[in-house]
Amino acid sequence: MPRQSVTLTESNNTWLNVHVENIGDYANKSELINDLIRRARRAEFINKKLSNAEKSNFVSQSASEILADFKADIKI
User: Fold this and answer.
1) How far apart are CA 14 and CA 9, in angstroms?
2) Contact present, 54 and 62 (Cβ < 8 Å)
3) pTM, whole model, 2 decimals?
4) pLDDT at residue 71 above 70?
5) CA 15 to chain centre
6) What's the chain's average pLDDT?
7) CA angle at residue 45 from 1 to 28, to 5 degrees?
8) pLDDT the model gives residue 16
9) Distance (Å, rounded) from C-alpha 56 to C-alpha 58?
10) HEC per residue, the chain
11) pLDDT tens-digit profile of 37-60?
12) What CA–CA distance (Å, rounded) separates 40 from 68?
């Protein structure tokens, strides 16, 4: 696998450390970062599909109307 060097803010580094060391869901930072990237790519794919559906008139609501309905349903 390709190796990368990244610079993190102190707060991001702390967050990564907490999730690796204290929560224990991941064995190391690389595993966690790869999972975060997979999740971001999945969200990007889903958002693109939703956007394409909206543009094709597959849905009759705008994105802001859908969001308003969603917020109303969960009653934040």
Assistant:
1) 9
2) yes
3) 0.66
4) yes
5) 15
6) 86
7) 35
8) 95
9) 5
10) CCCCCCCCCHHHHHHHHHHHHHHCCCCCHHHHHHHHHHHHHHHHHHHHHHHHHHHCCCCCCCHHHHHHHHHHHHCC
11) 999 998 888 888 888 877 887 777
12) 23
Cα dihedral 67→68→74→76 (10° resolution): 110
Structure tokens, 31: 């595993």
pLDDT score at 46: 82
What gap in Å lies between CA 47 and CA 54, rounded to an integer?
10
Tokens of 29: 């930072």
Q: How many residues does the chain have?
A: 76
